[in-house]
Amino acid sequence: MSNVAASVPTFRPNATKFTPAPARMPAAPAAKRGDEIDFTPIAASAREVKFHANQAIYFEGDDAEHCFKVISGTVRLCKITDDGRRQIAAFVGTGGFFGWTGATVHKYAAEAVTGVVLAKYPCARVDAAVATNPQFGRRLLGLITTQLHAAQEHLLLLGRKTAGERLATFLLDLICRRHGEAAQKGRLVLPMSRTDIADYLGLTVETVSSTLSSLRSQHVIAVPTPEIIDVRNAAALRDYAMMA
Amino acid sequence: MSNVAASVPTFRPNATKFTPAPARMPAAPAAKRGDEIDFTPIAASAREVKFHANQAIYFEGDDAEHCFKVISGTVRLCKITDDGRRQIAAFVGTGGFFGWTGATVHKYAAEAVTGVVLAKYPCARVDAAVATNPQFGRRLLGLITTQLHAAQEHLLLLGRKTAGERLATFLLDLICRRHGEAAQKGRLVLPMSRTDIADYLGLTVETVSSTLSSLRSQHVIAVPTPEIIDVRNAAALRDYAMMA
DNA sequence: CGGATCTTTGAGAGTGATCAATCACAGTGG
DNA sequence: CCACTGTGATTGATCACTCTCAAAGATCCG
Fold it and tell me: Which one, of B196, B215, B213, B192, lies nearest residue B204 by Cα?
Protein backbone atom coordinates (compact mmCIF):
# COMPACT_ATOMS: atom_id res chain seq x y z
CA MET A 1 0.00 0.00 0.00
CA SER A 2 1.93 3.00 -1.26
CA ASN A 3 0.82 5.87 0.89
CA VAL A 4 3.30 8.40 -0.33
CA ALA A 5 1.98 9.16 -3.79
CA ALA A 6 4.62 10.43 -6.12
CA SER A 7 3.49 13.94 -6.81
CA VAL A 8 1.93 14.92 -3.52
CA PRO A 9 4.19 16.70 -1.08
CA THR A 10 3.40 15.63 2.45
CA PHE A 11 6.47 16.96 4.16
CA ARG A 12 7.86 19.86 2.27
CA PRO A 13 11.31 20.80 3.55
CA ASN A 14 10.92 24.24 2.04
CA ALA A 15 7.74 24.93 3.97
CA THR A 16 7.71 27.83 6.37
CA LYS A 17 9.27 26.92 9.70
CA PHE A 18 6.14 27.03 11.74
CA THR A 19 3.96 30.07 11.15
CA PRO A 20 1.58 29.59 14.09
CA ALA A 21 -1.58 30.07 12.06
CA PRO A 22 -1.01 33.52 10.61
CA ALA A 23 -3.48 36.30 9.93
CA ARG A 24 -5.46 33.57 8.20
CA MET A 25 -6.39 32.24 11.60
CA PRO A 26 -6.98 35.11 14.03
CA ALA A 27 -6.02 34.15 17.55
CA ALA A 28 -9.57 34.15 18.80
CA PRO A 29 -10.04 32.22 22.05
CA ALA A 30 -11.60 29.23 20.31
CA ALA A 31 -15.22 29.78 21.25
CA LYS A 32 -16.67 26.51 22.49
CA ARG A 33 -18.90 24.96 19.87
CA GLY A 34 -21.50 22.30 20.36
CA ASP A 35 -19.56 19.70 18.43
CA GLU A 36 -16.53 20.08 20.62
CA ILE A 37 -15.51 17.37 23.02
CA ASP A 38 -14.39 17.59 26.62
CA PHE A 39 -11.30 15.51 27.12
CA THR A 40 -10.89 15.96 30.86
CA PRO A 41 -11.27 12.21 31.48
CA ILE A 42 -8.03 11.64 29.61
CA ALA A 43 -6.47 15.07 29.97
CA ALA A 44 -3.63 13.59 31.99
CA SER A 45 -2.43 11.58 29.02
CA ALA A 46 -2.48 14.52 26.62
CA ARG A 47 0.63 15.95 25.06
CA GLU A 48 0.91 19.05 22.97
CA VAL A 49 2.48 18.72 19.54
CA LYS A 50 3.06 21.14 16.68
CA PHE A 51 3.23 20.72 12.93
CA HIS A 52 4.03 23.27 10.30
CA ALA A 53 2.03 23.89 7.16
CA ASN A 54 1.75 20.90 4.80
CA GLN A 55 3.50 18.57 7.20
CA ALA A 56 2.04 15.09 7.47
CA ILE A 57 0.57 14.24 10.88
CA TYR A 58 0.08 10.61 9.95
CA PHE A 59 -0.35 8.58 6.80
CA GLU A 60 -3.10 6.28 5.69
CA GLY A 61 -2.17 2.83 6.92
CA ASP A 62 -0.07 4.06 9.85
CA ASP A 63 -0.62 2.35 13.15
CA ALA A 64 -3.40 4.17 14.96
CA GLU A 65 -1.46 5.14 18.05
CA HIS A 66 -2.85 8.59 18.68
CA CYS A 67 -5.82 10.76 18.00
CA PHE A 68 -5.85 14.53 18.13
CA LYS A 69 -7.72 17.62 19.11
CA VAL A 70 -6.95 20.83 17.25
CA ILE A 71 -5.87 23.61 19.59
CA SER A 72 -5.17 26.05 16.77
CA GLY A 73 -4.87 25.91 13.01
CA THR A 74 -6.51 23.74 10.37
CA VAL A 75 -5.97 20.09 9.43
CA ARG A 76 -7.05 18.20 6.31
CA LEU A 77 -8.04 14.54 6.23
CA CYS A 78 -7.42 12.94 2.88
CA LYS A 79 -7.15 9.84 0.78
CA ILE A 80 -4.88 9.47 -2.21
CA THR A 81 -5.10 6.96 -5.04
CA ASP A 82 -2.07 5.20 -6.45
CA ASP A 83 -2.01 7.53 -9.44
CA GLY A 84 -2.05 10.66 -7.29
CA ARG A 85 -5.68 11.72 -7.31
CA ARG A 86 -6.56 13.16 -3.94
CA GLN A 87 -9.84 13.58 -2.12
CA ILE A 88 -10.03 15.64 1.04
CA ALA A 89 -12.73 14.18 3.27
CA ALA A 90 -12.80 17.05 5.73
CA PHE A 91 -11.10 20.11 7.08
CA VAL A 92 -10.73 20.11 10.84
CA GLY A 93 -10.53 23.47 12.55
CA THR A 94 -9.88 24.71 16.07
CA GLY A 95 -11.65 22.57 18.63
CA GLY A 96 -12.14 19.73 16.17
CA PHE A 97 -11.21 16.12 16.81
CA PHE A 98 -9.73 13.58 14.41
CA GLY A 99 -7.70 10.40 14.17
CA TRP A 100 -10.05 8.10 16.01
CA THR A 101 -10.43 4.72 14.34
CA GLY A 102 -11.89 1.56 15.73
CA ALA A 103 -9.29 -0.39 13.74
CA THR A 104 -5.58 -0.79 14.29
CA VAL A 105 -4.54 1.55 11.48
CA HIS A 106 -5.58 4.99 10.25
CA LYS A 107 -7.98 4.90 7.36
CA TYR A 108 -6.93 8.22 5.87
CA ALA A 109 -3.98 10.61 6.07
CA ALA A 110 -3.94 13.76 8.17
CA GLU A 111 -1.90 16.79 7.16
CA ALA A 112 -1.50 20.27 8.55
CA VAL A 113 -3.01 22.94 6.30
CA THR A 114 -1.59 25.80 8.33
CA GLY A 115 0.79 25.64 11.20
CA VAL A 116 -1.15 23.75 13.85
CA VAL A 117 -0.98 23.03 17.55
CA LEU A 118 -2.58 19.75 18.55
CA ALA A 119 -3.37 17.89 21.72
CA LYS A 120 -2.28 14.30 21.24
CA TYR A 121 -4.05 11.43 23.02
CA PRO A 122 -3.12 7.76 22.94
CA CYS A 123 -5.90 5.82 21.22
CA ALA A 124 -5.54 3.12 23.87
CA ARG A 125 -6.35 5.67 26.57
CA VAL A 126 -9.36 6.94 24.65
CA ASP A 127 -10.57 3.40 24.17
CA ALA A 128 -10.07 2.67 27.86
CA ALA A 129 -12.00 5.80 28.77
CA VAL A 130 -14.84 4.70 26.49
CA ALA A 131 -14.86 1.29 28.12
CA THR A 132 -15.03 2.66 31.66
CA ASN A 133 -16.65 6.07 31.46
CA PRO A 134 -20.08 5.91 29.79
CA GLN A 135 -20.46 9.67 29.69
CA PHE A 136 -17.23 10.05 27.80
CA GLY A 137 -18.20 7.30 25.41
CA ARG A 138 -21.53 8.97 24.84
CA ARG A 139 -19.90 12.26 23.94
CA LEU A 140 -17.39 10.63 21.64
CA LEU A 141 -20.20 8.71 19.96
CA GLY A 142 -22.07 11.96 19.42
CA LEU A 143 -18.99 13.52 17.90
CA ILE A 144 -18.35 10.68 15.48
CA THR A 145 -22.04 10.61 14.57
CA THR A 146 -21.87 14.31 13.70
CA GLN A 147 -18.85 13.60 11.52
CA LEU A 148 -20.76 10.82 9.78
CA HIS A 149 -23.63 13.18 9.02
CA ALA A 150 -21.21 15.75 7.67
CA ALA A 151 -19.67 13.11 5.43
CA GLN A 152 -23.09 12.08 4.15
CA GLU A 153 -23.93 15.68 3.37
CA HIS A 154 -20.67 15.86 1.47
CA LEU A 155 -21.63 12.75 -0.50
CA LEU A 156 -24.60 14.65 -1.86
CA LEU A 157 -22.34 17.52 -2.84
CA LEU A 158 -19.82 15.32 -4.65
CA GLY A 159 -22.38 13.07 -6.27
CA ARG A 160 -25.03 15.49 -7.38
CA LYS A 161 -24.03 19.16 -7.25
CA THR A 162 -22.55 21.36 -9.98
CA ALA A 163 -19.32 23.30 -9.60
CA GLY A 164 -21.18 26.51 -8.73
CA GLU A 165 -23.29 24.76 -6.14
CA ARG A 166 -20.24 23.14 -4.61
CA LEU A 167 -18.41 26.41 -4.20
CA ALA A 168 -21.44 28.18 -2.81
CA THR A 169 -22.10 25.35 -0.36
CA PHE A 170 -18.48 25.40 0.70
CA LEU A 171 -18.48 29.13 1.38
CA LEU A 172 -21.75 28.96 3.30
CA ASP A 173 -20.38 26.11 5.38
CA LEU A 174 -17.36 28.17 6.23
CA ILE A 175 -19.57 31.08 7.24
CA CYS A 176 -21.51 28.81 9.57
CA ARG A 177 -18.51 27.08 11.09
CA ARG A 178 -16.49 30.28 10.96
CA HIS A 179 -13.07 28.86 11.70
CA GLY A 180 -11.70 31.68 13.81
CA GLU A 181 -14.30 34.40 13.99
CA ALA A 182 -13.48 36.99 11.37
CA ALA A 183 -13.75 40.53 12.61
CA GLN A 184 -16.46 41.52 10.19
CA LYS A 185 -19.51 39.52 9.31
CA GLY A 186 -19.29 38.11 5.82
CA ARG A 187 -15.55 38.09 5.62
CA LEU A 188 -13.93 34.70 5.20
CA VAL A 189 -10.25 34.09 5.67
CA LEU A 190 -9.43 30.85 3.93
CA PRO A 191 -6.72 28.81 5.60
CA MET A 192 -6.40 26.45 2.64
CA SER A 193 -5.13 26.77 -0.93
CA ARG A 194 -7.18 26.54 -4.12
CA THR A 195 -5.77 23.07 -4.66
CA ASP A 196 -7.08 22.00 -1.25
CA ILE A 197 -10.49 23.47 -2.03
CA ALA A 198 -10.52 21.65 -5.36
CA ASP A 199 -9.60 18.34 -3.76
CA TYR A 200 -12.28 18.87 -1.14
CA LEU A 201 -14.98 19.67 -3.69
CA GLY A 202 -14.01 17.07 -6.27
CA LEU A 203 -13.02 19.67 -8.85
CA THR A 204 -9.81 20.98 -10.43
CA VAL A 205 -7.96 24.11 -9.35
CA GLU A 206 -8.89 25.78 -12.62
CA THR A 207 -12.58 25.13 -12.15
CA VAL A 208 -12.46 26.45 -8.58
CA SER A 209 -10.71 29.57 -9.77
CA SER A 210 -13.02 30.28 -12.68
CA THR A 211 -16.12 29.57 -10.62
CA LEU A 212 -14.96 32.02 -7.98
CA SER A 213 -14.36 34.54 -10.75
CA SER A 214 -17.86 33.97 -11.99
CA LEU A 215 -19.31 34.58 -8.53
CA ARG A 216 -17.15 37.66 -8.29
CA SER A 217 -18.33 39.05 -11.61
CA GLN A 218 -21.90 38.72 -10.37
CA HIS A 219 -20.98 40.66 -7.24
CA VAL A 220 -21.93 37.75 -4.99
CA ILE A 221 -18.47 37.78 -3.49
CA ALA A 222 -15.38 39.95 -3.55
CA VAL A 223 -11.86 38.56 -3.45
CA PRO A 224 -9.49 41.32 -2.29
CA THR A 225 -6.68 38.80 -1.89
CA PRO A 226 -6.72 35.09 -2.81
CA GLU A 227 -7.23 34.03 0.80
CA ILE A 228 -9.85 36.62 1.69
CA ILE A 229 -13.40 36.28 0.44
CA ASP A 230 -16.04 38.82 1.29
CA VAL A 231 -19.55 37.57 0.91
CA ARG A 232 -21.51 40.48 -0.53
CA ASN A 233 -24.77 38.73 -1.24
CA ALA A 234 -25.42 35.79 1.05
CA ALA A 235 -28.93 35.33 -0.31
CA ALA A 236 -27.64 34.89 -3.85
CA LEU A 237 -25.05 32.49 -2.51
CA ARG A 238 -27.76 30.41 -0.89
CA ASP A 239 -29.64 30.33 -4.19
CA TYR A 240 -26.49 29.12 -5.86
CA ALA A 241 -26.05 26.42 -3.24
CA MET A 242 -29.50 25.05 -3.97
CA MET A 243 -30.79 25.64 -0.49
CA ALA A 244 -34.10 26.98 0.67
CA MET B 1 -37.97 21.60 4.23
CA SER B 2 -39.85 19.65 1.61
CA ASN B 3 -38.95 16.05 2.18
CA VAL B 4 -41.32 14.54 -0.30
CA ALA B 5 -39.74 15.53 -3.57
CA ALA B 6 -42.20 15.64 -6.40
CA SER B 7 -41.00 12.89 -8.66
CA VAL B 8 -39.64 10.38 -6.18
CA PRO B 9 -42.04 7.66 -5.12
CA THR B 10 -41.52 6.79 -1.50
CA PHE B 11 -44.67 4.84 -0.87
CA ARG B 12 -45.97 3.30 -4.00
CA PRO B 13 -49.47 1.93 -3.54
CA ASN B 14 -48.93 -0.32 -6.54
CA ALA B 15 -45.88 -1.94 -5.00
CA THR B 16 -45.95 -5.65 -4.40
CA LYS B 17 -47.65 -6.53 -1.16
CA PHE B 18 -44.60 -7.63 0.70
CA THR B 19 -42.33 -10.01 -1.23
CA PRO B 20 -40.13 -11.07 1.67
CA ALA B 21 -36.84 -10.58 -0.13
CA PRO B 22 -37.26 -12.87 -3.16
CA ALA B 23 -34.69 -14.98 -4.94
CA ARG B 24 -32.65 -11.81 -4.98
CA MET B 25 -31.98 -12.35 -1.31
CA PRO B 26 -31.55 -16.05 -0.52
CA ALA B 27 -32.74 -16.90 2.95
CA ALA B 28 -29.28 -17.61 4.27
CA PRO B 29 -29.10 -17.52 8.06
CA ALA B 30 -27.43 -14.12 8.14
CA ALA B 31 -23.88 -15.17 8.87
CA LYS B 32 -22.50 -12.99 11.64
CA ARG B 33 -20.13 -10.41 10.26
CA GLY B 34 -17.58 -8.40 12.18
CA ASP B 35 -19.43 -5.14 11.68
CA GLU B 36 -22.57 -6.49 13.20
CA ILE B 37 -23.79 -5.35 16.57
CA ASP B 38 -25.13 -7.31 19.49
CA PHE B 39 -28.29 -5.70 20.77
CA THR B 40 -28.93 -7.94 23.72
CA PRO B 41 -28.67 -5.03 26.18
CA ILE B 42 -31.78 -3.53 24.65
CA ALA B 43 -33.32 -6.64 23.13
CA ALA B 44 -36.31 -6.33 25.41
CA SER B 45 -37.34 -3.07 23.78
CA ALA B 46 -37.08 -4.41 20.24
CA ARG B 47 -40.06 -4.79 17.98
CA GLU B 48 -40.14 -6.42 14.59
CA VAL B 49 -41.49 -4.38 11.70
CA LYS B 50 -41.85 -5.04 7.98
CA PHE B 51 -41.77 -2.78 4.95
CA HIS B 52 -42.37 -3.65 1.34
CA ALA B 53 -40.16 -2.63 -1.55
CA ASN B 54 -39.77 1.13 -2.06
CA GLN B 55 -41.71 1.97 1.08
CA ALA B 56 -40.31 4.82 3.16
CA ILE B 57 -39.10 3.79 6.62
CA TYR B 58 -38.60 7.38 7.67
CA PHE B 59 -38.00 10.73 6.00
CA GLU B 60 -35.21 13.21 6.38
CA GLY B 61 -36.29 15.58 9.12
CA ASP B 62 -38.55 13.10 10.89
CA ASP B 63 -38.24 12.90 14.64
CA ALA B 64 -35.56 10.37 15.46
CA GLU B 65 -37.68 8.01 17.52
CA HIS B 66 -36.28 4.69 16.41
CA CYS B 67 -33.24 3.10 14.94
CA PHE B 68 -33.16 -0.22 13.16
CA LYS B 69 -31.30 -3.41 12.55
CA VAL B 70 -31.89 -5.24 9.28
CA ILE B 71 -33.10 -8.80 9.81
CA SER B 72 -33.56 -9.47 6.12
CA GLY B 73 -33.62 -7.47 2.93
CA THR B 74 -31.85 -4.29 1.86
CA VAL B 75 -32.38 -0.66 2.84
CA ARG B 76 -31.12 2.52 1.18
CA LEU B 77 -30.19 5.70 3.03
CA CYS B 78 -30.61 8.79 0.90
CA LYS B 79 -30.78 12.52 0.63
CA ILE B 80 -32.86 14.39 -1.91
CA THR B 81 -32.49 17.98 -3.08
CA ASP B 82 -35.45 20.25 -3.61
CA ASP B 83 -35.28 19.75 -7.36
CA GLY B 84 -35.32 15.98 -7.10
CA ARG B 85 -31.69 15.00 -7.39
CA ARG B 86 -30.99 12.06 -5.15
CA GLN B 87 -27.84 10.70 -3.57
CA ILE B 88 -27.81 7.33 -1.86
CA ALA B 89 -25.32 7.41 0.97
CA ALA B 90 -25.37 3.70 1.65
CA PHE B 91 -27.10 0.40 1.15
CA VAL B 92 -27.71 -1.48 4.37
CA GLY B 93 -27.97 -5.24 4.13
CA THR B 94 -28.83 -8.06 6.50
CA GLY B 95 -27.26 -7.54 9.90
CA GLY B 96 -26.67 -3.85 9.25
CA PHE B 97 -27.68 -1.05 11.56
CA PHE B 98 -29.05 2.39 10.68
CA GLY B 99 -31.12 5.29 11.93
CA TRP B 100 -28.94 6.31 14.83
CA THR B 101 -28.50 10.06 15.12
CA GLY B 102 -27.19 12.06 18.00
CA ALA B 103 -29.67 14.79 17.08
CA THR B 104 -33.44 14.94 17.50
CA VAL B 105 -34.23 14.35 13.84
CA HIS B 106 -33.06 11.98 11.13
CA LYS B 107 -30.47 13.48 8.85
CA TYR B 108 -31.36 11.37 5.83
CA ALA B 109 -34.28 9.27 4.60
CA ALA B 110 -34.41 5.49 4.82
CA GLU B 111 -36.33 3.42 2.28
CA ALA B 112 -36.77 -0.28 1.70
CA VAL B 113 -35.08 -1.48 -1.48
CA THR B 114 -36.57 -4.95 -1.27
CA GLY B 115 -39.16 -6.20 1.14
CA VAL B 116 -37.43 -5.94 4.50
CA VAL B 117 -37.84 -7.17 8.04
CA LEU B 118 -36.37 -4.88 10.66
CA ALA B 119 -35.82 -4.89 14.38
CA LYS B 120 -36.92 -1.52 15.70
CA TYR B 121 -35.30 0.02 18.79
CA PRO B 122 -36.30 3.26 20.51
CA CYS B 123 -33.45 5.76 20.20
CA ALA B 124 -34.02 6.76 23.79
CA ARG B 125 -33.36 3.19 24.90
CA VAL B 126 -30.22 3.00 22.82
CA ASP B 127 -29.04 6.27 24.26
CA ALA B 128 -29.78 5.07 27.77
CA ALA B 129 -27.87 1.87 27.12
CA VAL B 130 -24.90 3.89 25.90
CA ALA B 131 -25.04 6.03 29.03
CA THR B 132 -25.10 3.07 31.40
CA ASN B 133 -23.41 0.18 29.61
CA PRO B 134 -19.89 1.10 28.48
CA GLN B 135 -19.44 -2.11 26.54
CA PHE B 136 -22.52 -1.42 24.50
CA GLY B 137 -21.42 2.14 23.89
CA ARG B 138 -18.05 0.91 22.79
CA ARG B 139 -19.55 -1.44 20.25
CA LEU B 140 -21.92 1.17 18.90
CA LEU B 141 -19.04 3.61 18.61
CA GLY B 142 -17.10 1.03 16.65
CA LEU B 143 -20.03 0.51 14.35
CA ILE B 144 -20.55 4.20 13.64
CA THR B 145 -16.82 4.64 13.14
CA THR B 146 -16.86 1.89 10.53
CA GLN B 147 -19.74 3.64 8.79
CA LEU B 148 -17.78 6.89 8.82
CA HIS B 149 -14.83 5.18 7.17
CA ALA B 150 -17.09 3.68 4.55
CA ALA B 151 -18.54 7.12 3.85
CA GLN B 152 -15.07 8.59 3.50
CA GLU B 153 -14.11 5.85 1.08
CA HIS B 154 -17.23 6.71 -0.88
CA LEU B 155 -16.21 10.38 -0.95
CA LEU B 156 -13.11 9.36 -2.87
CA LEU B 157 -15.24 7.42 -5.32
CA LEU B 158 -17.68 10.28 -5.93
CA GLY B 159 -15.07 13.00 -6.02
CA ARG B 160 -12.30 11.41 -8.04
CA LYS B 161 -13.25 8.20 -9.83
CA THR B 162 -14.48 7.69 -13.39
CA ALA B 163 -17.70 5.90 -14.26
CA GLY B 164 -15.88 2.67 -15.01
CA GLU B 165 -13.97 2.81 -11.76
CA ARG B 166 -17.15 3.50 -9.83
CA LEU B 167 -18.96 0.51 -11.24
CA ALA B 168 -15.98 -1.78 -10.75
CA THR B 169 -15.55 -0.60 -7.16
CA PHE B 170 -19.23 -1.09 -6.53
CA LEU B 171 -19.21 -4.66 -7.82
CA LEU B 172 -16.09 -5.54 -5.87
CA ASP B 173 -17.64 -4.11 -2.72
CA LEU B 174 -20.67 -6.27 -3.24
CA ILE B 175 -18.50 -9.32 -3.70
CA CYS B 176 -16.75 -8.58 -0.40
CA ARG B 177 -19.86 -7.80 1.58
CA ARG B 178 -21.81 -10.45 -0.28
CA HIS B 179 -25.31 -9.50 0.79
CA GLY B 180 -26.80 -12.96 1.12
CA GLU B 181 -24.17 -15.46 0.10
CA ALA B 182 -24.73 -16.36 -3.51
CA ALA B 183 -24.51 -20.08 -4.17
CA GLN B 184 -21.65 -19.78 -6.60
CA LYS B 185 -18.58 -17.67 -6.15
CA GLY B 186 -18.59 -14.67 -8.44
CA ARG B 187 -22.32 -14.49 -8.90
CA LEU B 188 -23.94 -11.32 -7.65
CA VAL B 189 -27.66 -10.95 -7.18
CA LEU B 190 -28.40 -7.25 -7.09
CA PRO B 191 -31.25 -6.28 -4.82
CA MET B 192 -31.40 -2.74 -6.19
CA SER B 193 -32.42 -1.20 -9.51
CA ARG B 194 -30.16 0.56 -12.01
CA THR B 195 -31.58 3.86 -10.81
CA ASP B 196 -30.52 3.04 -7.26
CA ILE B 197 -27.05 2.11 -8.43
CA ALA B 198 -26.82 5.36 -10.38
CA ASP B 199 -27.89 7.42 -7.39
CA TYR B 200 -25.39 5.58 -5.22
CA LEU B 201 -22.51 6.14 -7.65
CA GLY B 202 -23.34 9.71 -8.62
CA LEU B 203 -24.13 8.78 -12.23
CA THR B 204 -27.20 8.50 -14.45
CA VAL B 205 -29.06 5.31 -15.24
CA GLU B 206 -27.89 5.50 -18.84
CA THR B 207 -24.25 5.73 -17.85
CA VAL B 208 -24.58 2.79 -15.45
CA SER B 209 -26.20 0.75 -18.16
CA SER B 210 -23.71 1.55 -20.88
CA THR B 211 -20.76 1.05 -18.53
CA LEU B 212 -22.07 -2.38 -17.58
CA SER B 213 -22.46 -3.15 -21.27
CA SER B 214 -18.87 -2.10 -21.82
CA LEU B 215 -17.66 -4.42 -19.06
CA ARG B 216 -19.79 -7.15 -20.53
CA SER B 217 -18.38 -6.70 -24.03
CA GLN B 218 -14.90 -7.12 -22.55
CA HIS B 219 -16.00 -10.35 -20.89
CA VAL B 220 -15.23 -8.97 -17.44
CA ILE B 221 -18.78 -9.69 -16.37
CA ALA B 222 -21.84 -11.46 -17.72
CA VAL B 223 -25.38 -10.23 -17.18
CA PRO B 224 -27.79 -13.14 -17.73
CA THR B 225 -30.66 -11.11 -16.29
CA PRO B 226 -30.61 -7.46 -15.22
CA GLU B 227 -30.36 -8.37 -11.54
CA ILE B 228 -27.76 -11.11 -11.89
CA ILE B 229 -24.14 -10.27 -12.57
CA ASP B 230 -21.51 -12.96 -12.94
CA VAL B 231 -18.00 -11.74 -12.41
CA ARG B 232 -15.92 -13.58 -14.98
CA ASN B 233 -12.63 -11.77 -14.50
CA ALA B 234 -12.18 -10.40 -11.01
CA ALA B 235 -8.60 -9.38 -11.72
CA ALA B 236 -9.65 -7.18 -14.62
CA LEU B 237 -12.37 -5.74 -12.43
CA ARG B 238 -9.79 -4.81 -9.80
CA ASP B 239 -7.70 -3.13 -12.48
CA TYR B 240 -10.75 -1.16 -13.53
CA ALA B 241 -11.40 -0.15 -9.94
CA MET B 242 -7.94 1.36 -9.62
CA MET B 243 -6.88 -0.94 -6.83
CA ALA B 244 -3.62 -2.73 -6.30
C1' DC C 1 15.75 41.72 -9.04
C1' DG C 2 15.25 36.68 -9.92
C1' DG C 3 13.09 32.34 -8.89
C1' DA C 4 9.57 29.64 -7.04
C1' DT C 5 4.84 28.88 -6.01
C1' DC C 6 0.15 29.91 -6.39
C1' DT C 7 -3.68 31.90 -8.86
C1' DT C 8 -6.04 33.30 -12.82
C1' DT C 9 -7.44 33.14 -17.60
C1' DG C 10 -8.46 31.10 -22.03
C1' DA C 11 -8.83 27.61 -25.81
C1' DG C 12 -9.80 23.01 -26.88
C1' DA C 13 -11.13 18.22 -25.74
C1' DG C 14 -13.59 14.51 -23.45
C1' DT C 15 -16.47 12.19 -20.19
C1' DG C 16 -20.79 11.75 -18.74
C1' DA C 17 -25.53 14.03 -19.08
C1' DT C 18 -29.51 14.78 -21.76
C1' DC C 19 -32.81 13.53 -25.05
C1' DA C 20 -35.16 10.04 -27.57
C1' DA C 21 -36.29 5.46 -29.09
C1' DT C 22 -36.43 0.66 -28.63
C1' DC C 23 -36.48 -3.55 -26.11
C1' DA C 24 -37.72 -6.82 -22.42
C1' DC C 25 -40.70 -8.36 -19.06
C1' DA C 26 -44.64 -8.75 -15.86
C1' DG C 27 -49.17 -7.97 -14.83
C1' DT C 28 -53.82 -7.22 -16.51
C1' DG C 29 -57.92 -7.54 -18.95
C1' DG C 30 -60.35 -8.51 -23.19
C1' DC D 1 -54.57 -17.12 -25.05
C1' DC D 2 -52.85 -12.92 -26.34
C1' DA D 3 -52.99 -7.91 -27.15
C1' DC D 4 -52.49 -3.98 -23.94
C1' DT D 5 -50.12 -1.33 -20.53
C1' DG D 6 -46.58 0.18 -17.41
C1' DT D 7 -42.09 -0.13 -15.60
C1' DG D 8 -37.31 -0.80 -15.99
C1' DA D 9 -33.17 -1.65 -18.93
C1' DT D 10 -30.61 -0.77 -22.99
C1' DT D 11 -28.80 1.71 -26.92
C1' DG D 12 -27.50 5.65 -29.70
C1' DA D 13 -27.03 10.69 -31.02
C1' DT D 14 -26.12 15.05 -29.42
C1' DC D 15 -24.86 18.43 -25.97
C1' DA D 16 -22.48 20.73 -22.27
C1' DC D 17 -20.05 20.98 -18.04
C1' DT D 18 -15.82 20.24 -16.38
C1' DC D 19 -11.10 18.68 -17.33
C1' DT D 20 -6.86 19.21 -19.76
C1' DC D 21 -3.38 21.85 -21.61
C1' DA D 22 -1.00 26.13 -21.98
C1' DA D 23 0.39 30.61 -20.67
C1' DA D 24 0.36 34.77 -18.24
C1' DG D 25 -0.15 37.31 -13.88
C1' DA D 26 0.48 37.82 -8.84
C1' DT D 27 2.83 37.23 -4.66
C1' DC D 28 6.34 35.92 -1.67
C1' DC D 29 11.04 35.30 -0.45
C1' DG D 30 15.72 34.95 -1.13
Answer: B196
